[in-house]
Design a protein that fits this description.
about 20% strand; about 575 residues; 22 strands; alpha/beta; globular
């Protein structure tokens, strides 16, 4: 879906006079409390890279300049202007940079820097990031730009380090300051020429490819249908005790915090301005004529977060805070529902009603406190202008659930890496290698819902998994059968774990390396063949990428059940 969505985004942007798309957020979700989780693709570098690269290619094919962001190590929002991130080189290259490299390989023509520091140096004046890695190691030949307004701190430092554009006011890249820096010998004309050549090189290559679009394309029917399809395929069914799908004549009580609200996410830089968003209640009424806001035998409760509780954080611009203002977005205060919402779920269930809980958030919500009171749980995310209609279609069984979690839902908040917030000085944090499913694997903890998890109205069986390699690639084959009675889609997931590490180096139990979505009719079996380059299996070892001698290959449709099918792989 990403390429089709990218072309729709590009069409609407170009129709309104734009030539630049700074919306490819591929920062990694280290802790689900991170306020920008809704903008990105989850906790796994492979997913971030594949989806980010796909979106990059698709918008640039239309003539729009793509901009993956925020480079790099940006996984805390409240302290984004102050935090200083440290990590070892292996963690940097294996966990926090691979997805940016994938976008460079996909041909991205720009990269946006991050507000935070890396090893005591702001990212937008960090030569190691902007020149040594991005250009010298990866061969990036586009232009770099700062995050907006507060991300360029020093004329000399930024230009010398390889920052080409200051956004969006020239506080440090003004003509006056640049001339002064040249006169003082702080920079020279080579630094200016390099930046100008990088910018003009992109414009010369791409602008001629832009074809004018009519304004009629903005918010058109086809794009709203695409938004609904994306919501249908993206929502995840976490629990279902048999209550779903619902009959369309069911008497449904639509309740919860967002029953009548257009809760579509952040009001920061990712905001989409749309005056035609269908609310949950109105979406239910389209398919369930007996839906009501006051009564019903089955309750569909819309609960979770909104823009006041998570999103881009502006309250800390320009000054340090000791206490976070209320309803200011940013990082979530916690991963639980409010006491009021948890009590509502319990109360409705105790009244003898069936309860379907619909969760709104950019990332994980811990469900242990009230899970036993829910007959079904749906991860709705912030599903957009037609998400409420998509939800109704899914609940009615007009469309089958097929979405999979791009993050791990833990049983306890302490199962995630720590995250620092306002007032928690010092603003220095060490990013460890492990997070998400790799951390739970390492600590032998069970997730409430594992990475890659998602239920369906049908059932699937994966069998006959085999692999072979020619030394350069590994081909994994498996058969997937729809063992139920409804058309559905499953996602084959292949993970690799090293069992031949050299020098006693630590390795994660497994890491995702490839996925394949497969649609199947009832009773149908398909043989799936997917290929992985052995270069993708390498680990970063003291400045070099090394291939281990042997691996275990795990095949399944989530990160937990994949452990049930293990294949040996020896690299000659």
């Amino acid at each position: 879906m990403v390429p089709v969505m990218g072309k729709a985004i590009a069409s609407e942007a170009i129709a309104q006079g734009a030539n630049y798309f700074a919306g490819i957020c591929i920062n990694l979700v280290r802790n689900p409390r991170w306020g920008r989780s809704q903008e990105t693709y989850g906790e796994d570098p492979y997913l971030l890279g594949e989806y980010g690269a796909s979106l990059t290619r698709s918008v640039q094919e239309e003539g729009l300049i793509a901009c993956p962001k925020h480079y790099a190590l940006n996984s805390i929002e409240d302290l984004r202007f102050y935090v200083d991130v440290h990590c070892d080189d292996r963690t940097l290259h294996e966990v926090y940079l691979p997805h940016f490299k994938k976008c460079v390989e996909a041909g991205t023509l720009s990269i946006m820097g991050a507000y935070n520091r890396y090893e005591e140096v702001y990212c937008c004046q960090n030569k190691k990031l902007l020149m040594d890695i991005l250009r010298d190691d990866w061969g990036f030949d586009g232009f770099t730009l700062s995050d907006f307004v507060w991300d360029c701190h020093d004329t000399e430092g930024c230009l010398r380090a390889g920052l080409d554009v200051e956004m969006m006011f020239t506080k440090h890249y003004s003509e006056k300051k640049i001339k002064k820096a040249i006169k003082n010998g702080d920079i020279n004309e080579e630094h200016i020429d390099r930046a100008v050549n990088n910018i003009l090189g992109v414009l010369i290559r791409l602008i001629p490819n832009i074809q004018p679009r009519s304004l009629d394309v903005v918010g058109c029917t086809a794009h709203r249908e695409l938004a609904m399809e994306a919501a249908e395929k993206g929502m995840v069914l976490l629990e279902n005790n048999g209550i779903l799908p619902l009959g369309k004549n069911a008497k449904v009580l639509v309740g919860g915090s967002y029953a009548t609200e257009a809760n579509v996410g952040d009001k920061g830089s990712s905001q989409v301005f749309d005056n035609d968003v269908i609310t949950p209640y109105d979406g239910m009424k389209q398919l369930f004529p007996n839906a009501s806001l006051s009564e019903g035998d089955i309750a569909v409760l819309h609960v979770g977060s909104n823009r006041n509780e998570e999103g881009e954080y502006f309250a800390n611009t320009g000054y340090a805070l000791t206490e976070k203002p209320k309803d200011s977005g940013g990082d979530r205060a916690g991963l639980y529902l409010s006491d009021k919402e948890a009590a509502l779920i319990k109360s409705i269930k105790k009244q003898g009603k069936k309860v379907i809980v619909v969760l709104y958030s950019g990332c994980a919500i811990i469900v242990e406190e009230w899970k036993q009171y829910a007959d079904a749980i749906v991860m709705n995310y912030y599903s957009g202008c037609r998400g409420s209609v998509a939800l109704a279609k899914l609940l009615a069984g007009d469309v089958n659930f097929g979405g999979k979690l791009p993050f791990t839902v833990a049983k306890n908040e302490e199962d995630y890496p720590s995250i620092i917030g306002i007032g928690q000085k010092p603003y220095t944090v060490f990013y460890d290698y492990y997070h998400g499913y790799t951390l739970l694997d390492k600590e032998k903890k069970e997730a409430a819902y594992p990475f890659g998890y998602g239920l369906s109205y049908t059932s699937f069986a994966i069998s006959d998994a085999t692999l072979f390699t020619d030394g350069a690639t590994v081909t994994v084959e498996a058969s997937i059968t729809n063992t139920g009675d409804m058309v559905g889609a499953d996602v084959l997931q292949v993970y690799f774990g090293s069992k031949g590490a050299q020098n006693g180096d630590h390795r994660p139990v497994k890491v995702l390396k490839v996925i394949k979505r497969v649609e199947l009719n009832p009773g149908e079996t398909k043989k799936v063949s997917i290929m992985v380059s052995t270069d993708e299996l390498r680990f970063y070892d003291r400045g070099h990428w090394v291939l281990d001698n042997a691996y275990t290959v795990y095949v399944g449709d989530d990160s937990r059940n994949a452990m049930n099918t293990a294949l040996d792989l020896h690299i000659s």
